[in-house]
């Protein structure tokens, strides 16, 4: 594949995806996702916004040191402090990139920046030159390019190329564009900017009108050779272009695209499940490529056609994106070597023998409750173990819940709070409500419940239930997750996981949205 035919995949799950309310990730969670993206052979991983907080700086630094095969990027506003902080965070990267941005639309320049166009131009040039002091790989984004005036856009992009930017990212920041319009914008910029051949054109589309993927693909058809996207389309507001949809559209429709990615698409499902588990954002069943129904056929006509010839109703092979019927046919008498080997096949990396032992003990407990252990169970099991050890001030010791026809449900729990066992009891409108109220008699978190969601991880009545709880306090939103074959225990775990996050100081406090 020649260089011009390589479509660069720039994954911003760890940065823009994290800006979804409640999707904040710890440093270790970011490293875990970054390693999964590396296994998928993602070209560029935007690890975060280093100036945003000490926690974000440390997370970018950790990802830069842990990942060797993908380029690691840090976001920076067109400010000296931002750029220098990003450069410092990326020092340990095998290959690093600084992505700097400034708004260029009239409404943003006037209302947000309170700057004249010439001032914005000067600031952009200065930012790119300063970033070049840290790395040869500098990306520049004119924020809200989709609503910017074309003459000024051409002028500023020509100038930043001369200053040393080698990637020009054109963002549809508010998801305002439609495919024909956005594709035409990319074609116009490439035609009108004299030095356009010295830079790779990139796009970053938001999904406010449900057009992020369509706009991204229209841009690729008009010469863009980098797409910024996220796993499962995660991102603030309606999200970003979904990586899996962009990649598989280009791969499937090679008759229309004169480029392709270098991704190992068989890793898509692993990444999707990992991101969903860590962020607590479940994937809708009818989601393209990674949804539970993506390769399911209910219609008799469809089923008959697929049985006779797969291509009648399937344009992709499920195996090509990591779907499989593989199940771990191990039980409570199975050994840890077989357990470890299957985790490695799934791309689950445990960093120490202690982690392996803890995960294996959890596997044994699950095998006592559940006859068949599926791959999804294993991934959830490891995620659940990670959740319990992270900032765990409150832990479930035991619980007794009673729900009887004609009686008010009640819950009695024993929790360890900062190492001290305490008992709490409450009644509620249902067993889950009673459980959460009983927890609050001990924790007194002062939060408001914003979301309670239950998903079955696999099929069958003995399936693990995965519960997501979203809590809000003083404008801060956190997600909690928990899994168990008993849905009430899973609910308690999820609520406690969220409480532990609320009780722990926030690592992220953006001085300004890093939304480009």
Automatic annotation (TrEMBL):
Domain Pyruvate carboxyltransferase, first and last residues per copy: 7-269
Enzyme Commission code(s) on record: 2.3.3.13
Binding annotation for Mn(2+): 16, 204, 206, 240
GO MF annotation terms: 2-isopropylmalate synthase activity; acetyl-CoA C-acetyltransferase activity; manganese ion binding
GO biological process: L-leucine biosynthetic process
Region (Regulatory domain): 395-516
Cofactor(s) for this UniProt protein: Mn(2+)
A Pfam family recorded for this sequence: HCS_D2
Matching InterPro entries: 2-IPM_HCS-like, 2-isopropylmalate_synth_dimer, AIPM/Hcit_synth_CS, Aldolase_TIM, LeuA/HCS_post-cat, LeuA_allosteric_dom_sf, LeuA_bact_synth, PYR_CT
Cross-referenced Gene3D superfamilies: 1.10.238.260, 3.30.160.270, Aldolase class I
Catalytic activity field: 3-methyl-2-oxobutanoate + acetyl-CoA + H2O = (2S)-2-isopropylmalate + CoA + H(+)
GO terms under cellular component: cytosol
Pathway the protein acts in: Amino-acid biosynthesis; L-leucine biosynthesis; L-leucine from 3-methyl-2-oxobutanoate: step 1/4
Keywords for this protein: Amino-acid biosynthesis, Branched-chain amino acid biosynthesis, Cytoplasm, Leucine biosynthesis, Manganese, Metal-binding, Transferase
HAMAP family according to UniProt: LeuA_type1 (MF_01025)
Subunit structure and binding partners: Homodimer.
PANTHER family: 2-ISOPROPYLMALATE SYNTHASE 1, CHLOROPLASTIC-RELATED, HOMOCITRATE SYNTHASE-RELATED
Family per similarity comment: Belongs to the alpha-IPM synthase/homocitrate synthase family. LeuA type 1 subfamily.
NCBIfam families referenced in this protein's UniProt entry, alphabetically: leuA_bact, PRK00915.1-3, PRK00915.1-4
Record function comment: Catalyzes the condensation of the acetyl group of acetyl-CoA with 3-methyl-2-oxobutanoate (2-ketoisovalerate) to form 3-carboxy-3-hydroxy-4-methylpentanoate (2-isopropylmalate).
Designated name of the protein: 2-isopropylmalate synthase
């Amino acid at each position: 594949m020649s260089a011009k035919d390589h479509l660069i995949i720039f994954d911003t799950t760890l940065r823009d995806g994290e800006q979804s309310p409640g999707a904040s990730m710890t440093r270790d969670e970011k490293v875990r996702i970054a390693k999964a993206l590396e296994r998928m052979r993602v070209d560029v991983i935007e690890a975060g916004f280093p100036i945003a907080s000490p926690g974000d700086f440390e997370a970018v630094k950790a990802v830069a040191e842990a990942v060797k095969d993908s380029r690691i990027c840090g976001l920076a506003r067109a400010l000296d402090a931002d750029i220098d902080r990003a450069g410092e965070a990326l020092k340990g990267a095998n290959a690093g990139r600084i992505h700097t941005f400034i708004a260029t639309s009239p409404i943003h320049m006037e209302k947000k920046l309170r700057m004249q166009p010439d001032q914005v131009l000067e600031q952009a040039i200065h930012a790119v030159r300063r970033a070049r002091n840290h790395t040869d790989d500098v990306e520049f984004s004119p924020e809200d390019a989709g609503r910017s005036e074309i003459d000024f856009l051409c002028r500023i992009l020509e100038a930043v190329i001369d200053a040393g930017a080698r990637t020009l990212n054109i963002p549809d920041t508010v998801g305002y564009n439609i495919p024909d319009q956005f594709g035409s914008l990319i074609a116009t910029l490439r035609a009108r900017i004299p030095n356009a051949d010295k830079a790779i054109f990139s796009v970053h589309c938001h999904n406010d009108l449900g057009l992020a993927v369509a706009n991204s693909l229209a841009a690729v058809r008009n010469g863009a050779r980098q797409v910024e996207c996220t796993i499962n389309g995660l991102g603030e507001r309606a999200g970003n272009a979904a990586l899996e949809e962009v990649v598989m559209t280009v791969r499937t429709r090679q008759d229309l695209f004169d480029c392709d990615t270098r991704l190992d698409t068989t890793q898509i499902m692993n990444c999707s499940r990992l991101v969903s588990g860590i962020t607590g954002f479940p994937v809708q069943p009818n989601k393209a490529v990674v949804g539970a129904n993506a390769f399911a056929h209910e219609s008799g006509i469809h089923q008959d056609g697929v049985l006779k010839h797969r291509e009648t109703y399937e344009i992709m092979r499920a195996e090509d994106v990591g779907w499989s019927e593989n199940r771990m046919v191990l039980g409570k008498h199975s050994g840890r070597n077989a357990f470890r080997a299957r985790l490695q096949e799934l791309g689950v990396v445990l960093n120490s023998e202690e982690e392996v032992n803890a995960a294996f003990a959890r596997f044994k407990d699950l095998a006592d409750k559940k006859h068949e252990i599926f791959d999804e169970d294993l991934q959830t099991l490891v995620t659940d173990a990670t959740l319990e050890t992270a900032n765990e001030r409150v832990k479930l010791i035991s619980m007794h819940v009673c729900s009887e026809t004609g009686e008010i449900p009640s819950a009695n729990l024993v929790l360890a709070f900062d190492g001290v066992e305490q008992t709490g009891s409450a009644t509620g409108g249902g067993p889950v409500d009673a459980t959460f109220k009983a927890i609050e008699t001990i924790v007194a978190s002062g939060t408001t419940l914003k979301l309670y969601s239950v998903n079955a991880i696999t099929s069958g009545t003995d399936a693990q239930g995965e519960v997501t709880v979203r809590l809000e306090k003083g404008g801060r939103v956190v997600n909690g997750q928990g899994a168990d074959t008993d849905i009430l225990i899973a609910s308690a775990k999820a609520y406690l996981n969220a409480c532990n996050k609320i009780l722990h100081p926030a690592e992220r406090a953006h001085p300004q949205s890093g939304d480009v």
